Amino acid sequence: MLSHLLHLRGIESVVIESRSRQYCEERVRAGLLEQGTVDLFTETGVGDRMQRIGLLHHGLNLRYHGCTHRIDFDELAGGKGVMIYPQQQVLQDLFTARLKAGAQIFFGVRDVKLQNFEPSAPANAEIHFRQGDREQIIACDFIAGCDGFHGVSRPSVPHGVLTPFVRHYPFGWLGILAEAPPSWHELIYAHHERGFALLTMRTPQLSRLYLQCDPDDDVSNWPDSRVWEELHTRLASEGWSLTEGPIVQKGVTPMTSFVIEPMRYGKLFLAGDAAHIVPPTGAKGLNLAIADIRVLSKALIEFYATTRRDLLDQYSDTCLRRVWKVQRFSWWMTAMLHIFKDDNLFDRRRQIAELDYVTSSRAAAQTLAENYVGLPFD
Question: Among this protein's residues, is 189 annotated catalytic?
Fold first, then answer.
């Protein structure tokens, strides 16, 4: 997306990707897009298919003690909403647009090394990598490290420059993809004494469901029959039923909050999961990455138009203000809905009181709605 935004202003970029194009476009991944992300895709010409087949949601549902409470985005967030549109389809749209425009994208690269990006380094930074049997070198003004939590960009920064802030949660999510029509037209976040559960969807034919579990749990401990039994129990509500279907994907994801500061070192700018990860409860990972590169693209466009560096120098501070607000929201949603093993009876009662307040106070519900549909980019 950063490459696309720069292209629209006549700025050349090169994208390198460790995986194959087929892998990126076929790996099934979650995708819930904030209003601002949806608007950015539409405004920049890569949102046509999203608008046709994406599932627009105008609210979400909180369920506890078997009762469901709807958070109305139209009423509470000025008509903004969220779009269910899987990440692999986002990538398909962006790859198609970039390649049609003649972009340079190197797929299947390995042995990537970043050089000469330190603040005191000469004019050009360099990226060294191999593709097939060929060694390649890209000389560039700047490097955007959009390569995820396990990428090479962040570890390339000298030790001691970056400060990490980390919180590991004592639970994970068991996620399944089922060939079953969604049991409800909006997301359901469920608090239950046995643990959290979430009902969401990928398409009108595919349901995505999650269960709180131990972070080091093994999927072999979760045969299909146990998964459905636990989902029925945690999502139970009078007059409502869960639709079952063949489970085609299953996996356990540990939950962590992580931020590094600063998000820049010399000519290297870190964005998305390379700089921060959030628990999936608030559905913010992809959207926070988009927010980062929106800020970075504006700074780069300003630099190439005027040679001004002030927006580049402000990049980290600008992004981190939003990053920490989103971290706060994701932590709050996670803490409100999950069962912590070391909580006592006081903590459990306080948790229910929090849910009761959010679902009975317009001010509290509006806070949830405004954060969920997306905070301002800048």
Answer: yes
* 187 and 210 Cβ atoms separated by less than 8 Å: no
Task: Choose, from 86, 182, 279, 280, the residue flagged as catalytic.
Answer: 280
Set out the domains of the chain in order of their start, with CATH numbers. 2-60+80-166+256-342 (3.50.50.60)
Check residue 74 and give its pLDDT: 96
The tens digit of pLDDT for each residue in 87-103 reads: 999 999 999 999 999 99
Confirm whether 280 is a catalytic residue: yes
Whole-prediction pTM value? 0.95
Asked if 57 is an active-site residue, the reply is yes
Which one-letter amino acid corresponds to residue 141? D
d(CA 60, CA 365): 11
Check residue 122 and give its pLDDT.
83
What SS3 class is residue 172? strand
> What single-letter amino acid sits at 205?
Q
Determine the 3-state secondary structure of 173 from DSSP.
strand
Q: Which of 64, 85, 169, 189 is catalytic?
A: 189
Instruction: Provide the residue type at 176 as one letter.
Output: I
SS3 of residue 32 by DSSP = strand
Phi, psi of 138 (to 5 degrees): -110, 120
Q: Is 113 a catalytic residue?
A: no
- Catalytically annotated residue among 85, 169, 265, 372: 372
Structure tokens at 171: 């639970």
Determine whether 210 is an active site residue: no
Q: 346, 354 in Cβ contact below 8 A?
A: no
Q: Which of 4, 58, 267, 284 is catalytic?
A: 284
